[in-house]
Structure prediction request, 249 residues.
Amino acid sequence: MLIEQHLTWLGSGSGALLDIHGHSEAALAGSLARTVASSISGLSHLPVESTVTLVRPDGTPCIGANTEGTAVELSRRDHRTGQGPTARALGGRLSIILNDRAPDPRWPDYCGSLTAAGYRSAVAIPLHLERGYRAALTLYSATANIFTPVVAAKVLVFGGVAAKSLRLALKHRADLALSAEHRATLASSAAINTACGVLMGQKGCSYEAAHRILEEESRQRNLTIRGVAEWLLQVLPGGVPTSHFTARA
Prediction:
């Protein structure tokens, strides 16, 4: 079976990565949750629900899941109250495995909520990230004692690969955002520099004086300096109405 082969490759330390993608951090968490749920379900031959709780550097959380439902609410409540395996995993501490034969006595309310939601087994492991991000992978099953030592060991291995995949996906997203910001900065600088050159040629002033003209006009028009510069350049080549500019060189 392809999923089982894939998990075998993960266990062999081949450096495999999971194919996760998304336009936002929440979308990345959801993509990872779906991939993990599919793979672990294939390994255990039983349905497994998955959530990925991702906490941003500013402390705000987002939760991705393979399905919308009680698993998301359980993970959200776990994180909010700090009482449960997800919260513990977010702290980077030891992995916690809960089975109905051995409920954790520290979290009676959580175990009660887990049972009330129809789940008999749960496991949460930390995903070690970078750049101030924290994450936890939580798996839920309606089957009792699904996380046997063999399955649990595979989950831990899979968690390491999931963490590496999420780290790279978050880095790629950050790099794209930085690249877009850099392109926007370059475009803004190009427009402003060109507009200043036009004013310098028309008024015989310095670059600094031309820039001050743009600054004054941006205040009067309630536009950014780039907006004023682009407006000026749009009237070319029909001529720039310099009389509209208040030169305060």
